[in-house]
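Slide 14.
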Amino acid sequence: MDLPNYLRKKRGKLELKKGKKWITWNPYHSKLAAYLLGSGENWPFTRESKVLYLGAAEGNTVNFLSNICIEGRIIAIDISRISMIELVTLAEKKRNIIPFLGDAHFPEKYRNHAGNPDILYQDIAQADQVNIFVRNYKYFKPKYGFLMIKSHSISGKESEVYSETKKILKQNFDVVKVTNISKWAKGHNAYYIE
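Slide 15: predicted structure.
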């Protein structure tokens, strides 16, 4: 995939154009950056994209997405009160980030905030992370999805976890593409869904 003109690869890292300068997007701190460096083939993010981000943590990737989807919005869901403090601080600086303290198991609780997202992005370290993704995708019906699987959070050998994940996703979605991002995020695979 050719990168959009606001992204470039440089010395094993990714850079994002912000104004007239380029800022580093570290793949060791962002699985979405790792996905691109790992030869991920799909990039549906636009200036107007509405993204539902499950597992936003302190907002590193959320921050970069807010620079990309500058006219859209990022609904950043996380269950941690400590992470939410940093997300709220980030949202005070960025007008297109909506932080929400909540549990991704219950999409109906953040329905009013999420609206109709174009993209579902999930990075949650839970044993049932695949089921959480499927439940949210079916609930919100976005056009595209990204699931970052942490194999160590699911019981079983890594290869079995990835195989079972792909099987479940193929049962539920027409398009499932896998990108190995373990070079940057040990024990992780990235799944692109349509």
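Speaker note: The mean pLDDT is 94.
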